[in-house]
């Protein structure tokens, strides 16, 4: 009668405990409660489904309880079987509130008008890498916003036009990178890049890459490429002309693709950038490099963050938790890896390739990212709540562009849990690889950037989230009464600008540290306050949530 029947699919003990404390009764799905023993007997016949996870942190699967977790929960929270009995009494009642891992795993007959569900349909338009890439391409036609200012440029390799656009982008980035490498030289002396050790050469994550060229003369017999700088200058001039719309009368739509022999240029560029070959730069060329890069910076928001090594990251378009991600510095490897993968969820049509953020802020020499929560409580009108607490995730090894293994470059907890902290890791990096945003703010203050969190990072994250949602708004299937908690992942540039990587539709609530144990519990508590308590009491506390947008 009070419409306080809930259903939870998945291991969410905090949600269960908080709802029961409010006087709600759980209608358990058949696999739980008194059927736990039956599940144990049948578990050998059941398997997780490894279909794409819609961008969420958790595997999408036909929901099955984790035995140890469920058993512990029952021993701790239902020693007398009271909740099982109450669940049995409401077994034929429709739940008024449903919290599930993913919407597709919920019986559609339970989705009646008026009940509350923690997911919307068709959110893959912004919660998969492929969907976010496509949606943000359309952003300039929807809003007066440029995705290149907050989202590393990204291409879907299964779409011919985008694959060709990526190839051209790779060419142009190589040319700009060569100019940046050339400017490492103080005068007319050739730039010398550090020699890649033989043991580190290889494809994918194990390919070495040079981050700090050495200023020295080329070794005897080391090839010099005086024409490379001239060719790179020519390419950048052509590109600048395109950006200035000076190519209107040209017969070719893409002069940058035809002005030099790109196959030869790339092979020689690789030798300079990655293999230690020498490079000659004259004083006049140095001035030209400086001028061109300054002009290009006015048109290319990512010129600084892209660095000078032309590293790209290849991702399956609908996977999560770092699955299938490969980082490389060579065009042929990107195209070959996309073609060679035969896994159904990562075939060439589902690959995206994205520019790696090379110039990023590190903490104690270690890469990190930010997991930022937000809730959408309505799509018509779009209503967005930003959570004011978040956490940082660290890698297990010091950041380096020389070595591209996962332990240095993927911050996902699901990836890093497989690696031990390396001996050369700074001891100040937390052992559990997690920081709170408060700890990060203290660190920024030590760097003399005390205002960066509130003046740069938070406004930048809010803007990126809103732009992503607006770009995909027409694709989401709206349902009144639903809501959804999302987890957005950001990298931080050297200038403290946040760069959006992805948005997860089912952010993990499993604590991996003392920080996440507290924060994950808090965000679940405050989400229930926002979507349940606030209906009856509009002035009730909603914890750390802040309304940042309502149409």
From TrEMBL:
Keywords for this protein: ATP-binding, Cell projection, Cilium, Cytoplasm, Cytoskeleton, Flagellum, Ligase, Nucleotide-binding
GO MF terms held by the record: ATP binding; protein-glycine ligase activity, initiating
A Pfam family that the UniProt record links to this protein: TTL
Localisation per UniProt entry: Cytoplasm, Cytoskeleton, Flagellum axoneme
Biased composition (Basic and acidic residues): 36-50
Source organism, top-level taxon: Eukaryota
GO cellular component labels: axoneme; microtubule cytoskeleton
GO terms, biological process: cilium assembly; cilium movement
Main location: cytoplasm
Region (Disordered): 36-56
Nucleotide-binding among keywords: yes
Catalytic reaction(s) noted: L-glutamyl-[protein] + glycine + ATP = glycyl-L-glutamyl-[protein] + ADP + phosphate + H(+)
Protein name per the record: TTLL3 monoglycylase
Lineage: Eukaryota, Metazoa, Chordata, Craniata, Vertebrata
Gene name in the database record: Ttll3_0
């Amino acid at each position: 009668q009070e419409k306080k029947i809930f259903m939870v699919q998945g291991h969410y003990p905090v949600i269960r405990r908080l709802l029961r404390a409010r006087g709600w009764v759980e209608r358990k799905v058949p696999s739980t409660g008194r059927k736990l023993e039956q599940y144990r007997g049948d578990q050998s016949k059941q398997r997780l489904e490894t279909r794409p996870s819609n961008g969420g942190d958790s595997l999408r699967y036909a929901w099955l309880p984790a035995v140890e977790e469920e058993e512990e929960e029952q021993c701790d929270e239902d020693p007398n079987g009271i909740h099982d009995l109450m669940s049995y009494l409401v077994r034929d009642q429709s739940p008024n509130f449903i919290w599930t891992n993913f919407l597709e795993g919920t019986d559609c007959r339970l989705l009646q008008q008026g009940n509350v569900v923690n997911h919307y349909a068709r959110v893959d338009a912004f919660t998969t890498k492929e969907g976010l890439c496509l949606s943000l391409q359309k952003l300039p036609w929807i809003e007066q916003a440029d995705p290149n200012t907050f989202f590393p440029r990204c291409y879907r390799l299964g779409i011919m036009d985008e694959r060709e656009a990526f190839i051209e982008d790779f060419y142009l980035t190589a040319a700009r990178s060569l100019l940046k490498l050339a400017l490492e030289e103080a005068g007319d002396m050739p730039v010398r890049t550090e020699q890649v050790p033989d043991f580190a050469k290889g494809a994918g994550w194990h390919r070495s890459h040079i981050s700090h060229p050495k200023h020295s003369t080329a070794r005897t017999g080391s090839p010099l490429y005086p024409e490379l700088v001239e060719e790179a200058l020519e390419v950048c001039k052509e590109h600048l002309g395109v950006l200035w719309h000076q190519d209107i009368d040209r017969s070719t739509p893409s002069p940058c693709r035809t002005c030099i022999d790109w196959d030869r240029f790339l092979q020689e560029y690789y030798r300079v950038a990655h293999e230690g070959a020498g490079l000659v730069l004259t004083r006049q060329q140095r001035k030209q490099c400086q001028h061109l890069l300054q002009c290009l910076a006015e048109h290319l928001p990512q010129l600084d963050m892209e660095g000078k090594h032309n590293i790209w990251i290849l991702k399956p378009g609908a996977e999560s938790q770092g699955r299938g991600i490969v980082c490389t510095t060579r065009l042929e490897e990107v195209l070959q890896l996309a073609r060679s993968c035969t896994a159904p969820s990562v075939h060439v049509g589902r690959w995206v390739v994205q520019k790696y953020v090379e110039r990023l802020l590190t903490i104690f020499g270690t890469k990190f990212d930010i997991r930022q929560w937000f809730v959408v409580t309505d799509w018509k009108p779009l209503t967005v709540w930003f959570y004011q607490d978040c956490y940082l995730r660290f890698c297990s090894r010091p950041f380096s562009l020389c070595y591209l293994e996962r332990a240095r470059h993927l911050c996902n907890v699901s990836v890093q849990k497989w690696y031990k902290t390396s001996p050369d890791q700074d001891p100040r990096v937390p052992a559990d690889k997690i920081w709170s945003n408060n700890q990060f703010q203290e660190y920024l203050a030590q760097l003399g950037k005390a205002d960066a969190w509130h003046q740069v990072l938070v406004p930048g994250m809010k803007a990126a989230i809103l732009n992503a949602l607006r770009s995909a708004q027409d694709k989401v299937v709206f349902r009144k009464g639903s809501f959804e908690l999302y987890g957005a992942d950001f990298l931080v540039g050297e200038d403290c600008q946040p760069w959006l990587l992805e948005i997860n539709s089912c952010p993990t609530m499993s604590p991996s540290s003392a920080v996440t144990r507290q924060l994950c519990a808090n965000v679940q508590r405050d989400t229930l306050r926002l979507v349940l308590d606030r209906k009856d009491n509009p002035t009730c506390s909603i914890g750390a949530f802040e309304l940042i947008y309502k149409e």
